Amino acid sequence: MAVKIDVKELLGQAKKVEVKTTTKNFKKAIAFMRSLNKIQLDQRHIEKQGDGLEDFNSVEGLELSDKSMGSMIEMADTSTQYIAETLKLSNKQVEKLEEEKDMDEVMAFAMKLAEEVTGTKAEKAGEKETLKA
User: Fold this and answer.
1) Could you give the angle at which helices 59-87 and 103-118 cross, rounded to 10 degrees?
2) CA angle, residues 80, 81, 85, in degrees to nearest 5
3) Among 46, 92, 109, 112, which is most exposed with the fewest C-beta within 10 angstroms?
4) Secondary structure (3-state) at 124
5) Residue-wise pLDDT tens digits, 63-102
6) Is the Cβ–Cβ distance between 35 and 42 less than 8 Å?
7) Superkingdom of this entry's organism (predicted)?
């Protein structure tokens, strides 16, 4: 079986891209969602550590800031890589994606793609996301 993915907004391509719902693609989608979950968990830990911090220009504050920026980069790279691998994008298409789309658009599309491939729907439950089959 396969799902047809509308990539017009993301890539400006009118033709839908067919993605097979193979075990390989399913595992790739779950691994992507798991990676995002881990990054979000790391962000929560960083925020919690920063709650009691008075001086954000201290060594500890700068280290937390560095960790936070690192996880934002990881989130961007993980989302872009997942989209590129799943849709089999060319280097030029990946470059266009990174240059023309903001992070929220890329992440939202990556999540939608993963949901389509796995046949699940991520729902916002307060602050956390839960999967519903």
Assistant:
1) 50
2) 120
3) 92
4) strand
5) 998 999 999 999 999 999 999 999 999 999 999 999 999 9
6) no
7) Bacteria
Compute the CA torsion angle 35, 87, 1, 24 (nearest 10 deg).
Answer: -40
Q: What pLDDT, on the 0 to 100 scale, is given for residue 120?
A: 85
3-state secondary structure of 38: helix
Separation between Cα atoms, residue 111 and residue 103, nearest integer Å = 12
> In the structure encoding, which two tokens stand for residue 75, read together?
């989130």
d(CA 133, CA 131): 7
Instruction: Judge contact between 114 and 82, C-beta under 8 A.
Output: yes
Q: Is 10 exposed, middle or buried (0-12, 13-18, 19+ CB in 10 A)?
A: buried
Q: Where are the alpha helices (DSSP H) in 52-102?
A: 59-87, 91-100
Cα–Cα separations (whole angstroms), residue 4 to 14, 58, 112, 124: 12, 50, 12, 24
SS3 for 20? strand
Please name which of 104, 79, 76 lies closest in space to residue 89, comparing C-alpha atoms: 79
